[in-house]
Amino acid sequence: MARDFLNLADAGGDMLAAMINDAIDRKAARKAWPKARPDADAPLAGHVLAMIFEKNSTRTRVSFDMAMRQLGGSALIMEAGSTQIGRGETIADTARVLSRMVDAIMIRTDDHAKIEELAHYADVPVINGLTDLSHPCQIVADLLTIVEHGHALPGLQVAWLGDGNNMTNSLIEAAGLMKFTLRVGGPAGYEPDADFIARARAAGGEVILTQDAREAVAGAQVVVTDTWVSMGQAGGEQHVAAMQPYQVNAELMAAAAPDAKFLHCLPAHRNEEVTDEVIDGPQSVVWDEAENRIHAQKSVLLWSLGKL
Ligand code: CP
Ligand code: NVA
């Protein structure tokens, strides 16, 4: 069964909750090693994942590769520039060929329309490893991290600070599916995608946009930020200047709930969107979050390949 994972809504809220639980179980078995044999069921034995990269990556690349290995399968990396995609072979033809050779495709690309086209022409599942529009795999890891640090998702108070980017859009989507409150603090002109906001609100998530960083974090149990300038964005002095009031520093964290957790998908631009004091401080869970990419990506792979 080919299930594309282009956005979180492809799985839906109930499945997202099931994915988090499955990740918790598999992670626990791995931590209990050698008492328990982790992933002893090898559910993806004989399966191969092709990973196409049109942008840089450390975590997505390593976590999907490790996830496939741990589940009994394997992965191969295709740097787009050294493939025929880089010489103009169409997405549709690439999809047709890879569907005859591998069991699933993960792609990191720029224009979201490209992944939609790939999914349309591929007979095997296509997984979104980040586009300019969304980053759903990262958000599965983020939700897992929040849950394992003791929070239930429904009713949770989450704050996002800074640029309204691919991460923000997927977090907004999660607010709708898992019914939590998300306050997005960012400058005018850098808002997240309006369609994602409308869908999340219609699904029962509370999404509030504010230009006041303190209002965004007030009472938040989770504070999230990301780079001010995403891969492929022009950036520039004006863009960076507009982001300054939204830096997550100790003073801003103090306005959140006591013991609020700090998340960042990484890579971090230290002392830009977050200060060393916060990212290296006791409220930061960013290394758990990075590790959780492996555990979360296992759930995504298992769902896409019809094993969950
Ligand atoms: N967070 C994340 O997706 O990291 P990479 O860009 O290193 O894959
Ligand atoms: N918003 C960032 C996420 C990197 C993982 C980017 O797109 O560059």
TrEMBL record:
In this chain the Aspartate/ornithine carbamoyltransferase carbamoyl-P binding domain maps to 3-148
- What are the UniProt keywords, alphabetically? Cytoplasm, Transferase
* Short name of one Pfam family: OTCace
Report the EC number(s), separated by commas if there are several.
2.1.3.3
Cell location: Cytoplasm
Query: Which one of the record's GO molecular function terms can you name?
Result: ornithine carbamoyltransferase activity
Aspartate/ornithine carbamoyltransferase Asp/Orn-binding domain location is: 155-303
Question: Which residues does the record give as L-ornithine binding sites?
Answer: N166, D226, S230, M231
Q: What is its main location?
A: cytoplasm
What job does the chain carry out? Reversibly catalyzes the transfer of the carbamoyl group from carbamoyl phosphate (CP) to the N(epsilon) atom of ornithine (ORN) to produce L-citrulline.
Under the heading HAMAP family, the entry gives: OTCase
Spell out the protein name for this chain: Ornithine carbamoyltransferase
